[in-house]
Amino acid sequence: CASYQAADADDPLAQTPNWHLRGKLGIITPEERVSASLHWRHLGRTGQDDLRLTGPFGQTLLALNARPGFAEVELDGRRHQGDSPEQLIQRLTGWQLPLSQLSRYLLGDTASNPTTSYDEQGHPVRLDLVHPGTGEQWQLTYNGWQQLSQHRLPRELELRQGPQRIKLAISHWQPEL
Amino acid sequence: ADALQQRLAALSQFSAEFEQQAFDFDGQLVQESQGLIALQAPLRFAWEQSEPEPLTLVSDGEAVWYFDPFVEQVTVTPVEQALAQTPLALISSQDSALWAQWQVSKVDGCYQLVQKEQPEITMGICFSGEAIESLTLTDAQGTKTVMSLKAFSDQPVAAERFVFEPADGVFIDDQR
Q1: Hey, are the CB atoms on A167 and B71 less than 8 Å from each other?
Q2: At B139, is the pLDDT very low, low, confident or very high (cuts 50, 70, 90)?
Q3: Residue B109: strand pairing partners
Q4: A126 bridge partner residues
Q5: Mutate to test the interface with A, among B18, B25, B30, B51 (most CBs of A within 10 A)
Q6: Chain A, chain B: beta-carbon pairs less than 8 Å apart
Q7: By the 8 A CB rule, do B112 and B104 touch?
Q8: Which chain B residues are within 8 Å of A63, Cβ to Cβ?
Q9: d(CA B124, CA B110)
Q10: Does the N-terminal peptide bond of residue B52 adopt cis geometry, omega within 30 degrees of 0?
């Protein structure tokens, strides 16, 4: 097949199961607003995810490492473990995030979600995410697109549920061969 | 340590362009940013990041105003707390108690600082002539942050640079 990955091939990301990205994560709720730089390494083949949140001077705020059946978070010098990132994040923050679906949507790959609405250029605009366990619904909105490492990726996206908002901006994305 | 302290004392204020990169323990680049920095002893500094997203941290010597447009919030914290994790606190202060926590040595042109209580925390301060060329910090988690400075100037810095006026409508989280 073409060595150059055409941006709108039907499933552009299937060929790049392993990647890493740098960006920014923002959490806005009525009680608090938090933001951090995000580094996320996703190894699709082995189902491994390493996330690291850092402050403005590079200091580590949170490190999350997950692989099938196991997740560990280091926060304020203490380690917490769980069976999955969703379970761990729910225990630590009370948030029930449909994380497993997120890595695909994060990269703008929404073909598998029938609720997705598209704009005239065929870019996904909005979709609904339902948490498999709780049935809780989150709405995901895309704000702008960019080309990174020959792939069309969102510039920014936002997950919203009632007053809870999670914003994510991607500044660097690179597949790992 | 006094050689380094004297050198920094002679540099009571400066401004520069910064490029910062943070690497995790196995060398993966986890964060990259650029912008302008200004510093004025004691404990006043302005960190105006432009890339990849805008971010401003201003210390007026008592409190640090951390404005992040991404979440439309200003967080205000006492300067000691906010600066504890950065070389900026040390290089902008002559507080002997702060300096006493560090073991200072000179290694081929750069000053190496090792924290006495937690020796895995180290700092590097490299000069080129009178100008600071880079500040490096390795934290307890093994993350190494390298801040390289360019267009370094020790001309006086305008006082307003160290005052932050939050725009109206911005959420203020005052933790003082």
Answers
A1: yes
A2: confident
A3: none
A4: A117, A141
A5: B30
A6: 89
A7: yes
A8: 141
A9: 7
A10: yes
CB contact under 8 A, B20 and A57: yes
ipTM of the complex: 0.89
| d(CA A1, nearest CA chain B) in Å | 31
Which structure tokens are listed for A87?
A: 């379970």
Q: Tens of pLDDT along B89-123?
A: 788 888 888 889 899 999 888 999 999 999 999 99
Going A98 to A99 to A100 to A101, the CA torsion angle's sign is positive
Contacts of B86 in chain A (CB under 8 A): 57, 59
pTM of the predicted model, to two decimals? Answer: 0.89
Q: Which of A24, A32, A54 sits opposite B30 (nearest CB)?
A: A54
What percent of chain B stands above pLDDT 70? 97
Question: Which candidate, A22, A24, A42, A25, places its Cα nearest to that of A104?
Answer: A42
Question: Can you read off the two tokens belonging to residue B2?
Answer: 């006094």
Q: Are residues A5 and A151 in contact, defined by beta-carbon separation less than 8 angstroms?
A: yes
Q: What is the pLDDT of residues B116-132, one digit of tens each?
A: 999 999 999 999 988 99
